[in-house]
Amino acid sequence: MYHLDQPLQPGDSLRLDFDLLYRTKGFKNGNANIDIVQNGTFFTNQYFPGIGYSEQYELSSDDKRKDNGLKPKERMRAQNDPAGVRQNVFGDDADQIRFAMTISTTPDQTAIAPGYLQKEWLKTGPDGKKRRYFSYQMDSPIADFYSIVSARYLVKKEVYTGKAGNPISLEIYYHPGHPHNLDRMMRGMKASLAYYQANYGAFQHRQLRIMEFPRYRSYAQSFANTIPFGEDMGFVADIDDKQDIDMPFFVTAHETAHQWWGHQVTEANVRGSAMLSESLAEYSALMVMKHQYPQERMQEFLRYELDYYLRGRQSETKKEQPLSQCEGQQYIHYNKGAHVLYALQDQIGEDKLNQALRAYRDRWNVARVAQTGIYPTAADLTSELQAVTPDSLRGLLDDWVNAITLYELKTDKVTVTPVGKQYDVQVTVSAEKVRADSLGNETKRPINEWIWIGVYAPKAKGSDSEKLLYYQRHHITKPKQFIIVRVNQKPDRAGIDPMNLLIDRHPKDNIKAIEMP
Ligand SMILES: [Zn+2]
Predict the structure, then answer these.
(1) What is the ipTM of this complex?
(2) Which residues of 47-72 are buried (b: 16+ CB within 10 A; e: fewer)?
(3) Is pLDDT of 251 > 70?
(4) Centroid of ligand 1 to alpha carbon of 400 (angstroms)
(5) Of 384, 388, 461, 512, which residue is the least packed, with the fewest Cβ within 10 Å?
(6) Which CATH topology does 96-123+134-401 take?
């Protein structure tokens, strides 16, 4: 740790030079460094010296802290913590930075950092070996969070000009032999840019790049105009469009959304922060999917989010938090977050919800934060959501965002009666709603929601695709309810909440095959 003799004054600057060497000697038996590798290096500025104290290296598990005579530690700062709202999730080293970087690598590799390539050249080093240099510069301030990748890449490029008219260069840097899903990812970038620019506002860069990294690590991550993307997050997936979720497309949509949620608007480093980045990115990706797939198939995506949430809360080790108070819990900020925001747009309307996100982005973008020094919290997003939610649905918003609310929806019985050329479908459903506290204690709540009732046609021979004959909301106010609907075609199955829009602990029993009388 270094201290300055003279404290820095506001507006002062100081130059910091440092050398850092990472060298693998032989090979390790385990836990090898997988960031810096022969072909496919990917690391972030966490490798570089930081300014001030970094809490992230403190012991976090209660047990380990106890062994060391330490008190248990909260996972995150309170949402209104005055120091927390003055720093963003990328740390308290800096707000926004001006970014330029020169990187060298072996002559057969391409090295990439955020910003735009200014120059590229070869130079022989003191050891007599040639190295290839790349110089990048960004033309606007970015978060103090950046990536460096280097690999032997091929590149696929396209120029996208959307309705907004601004040309954006789309580039995918990939490992030779992994071209399988490039079109899916290209389409993912285009569909995302189209939806986000139309609904949230302009993309802030003129280039968006995806770079493959090896499957030692399974994730993708969004940096300014730059998305390092794991080999097995999309590049080598074998997608059967009839059955599978198009993960390369979906992950591309999620990461592209972070250019808005995380980069255009950067959240305060307090409880609930990930609702502003991960929930919004995952919600945005679901919305892009919504416009790519027939309505019936959205059930698969919602079910995916729901299952991950339900599984996650089973294995929670500390305490489950409401979405607006989440503490780095993936099952909440990704899965529940996306799920309830999707359900909310289903209730209040897609345009309304996106109008709230646009207002949130306009009010809290990094240029505005630069003037106030205060970063947004989940409460700021929630108040934008409240503003577009009619009074009659504000209770739901509160249930889903500020509390832990679970449903138990079930279809008990379905019968059908032919009426001329039509059919009457009689559905008996049961519905229950509970609120859980962080420790899992549950209290029943009265149910008073408009929930979808759906009737499906039989599947066509040799086809897996579902078709809804009837899909309407019904007012569900009682634990048991009897509903009759009329359809024009012989039905096959029917039930309550067929799309799995609500957080239902047993989503499998929503739909039942029809008993013929
Ligand atoms: Zn994300």
Answers:
(1) 0.98
(2) eeeeeeeeeeeeeeeeeeeeeeeeee
(3) yes
(4) 21
(5) 461
(6) Neutral Protease; domain 2 (1.10.390)
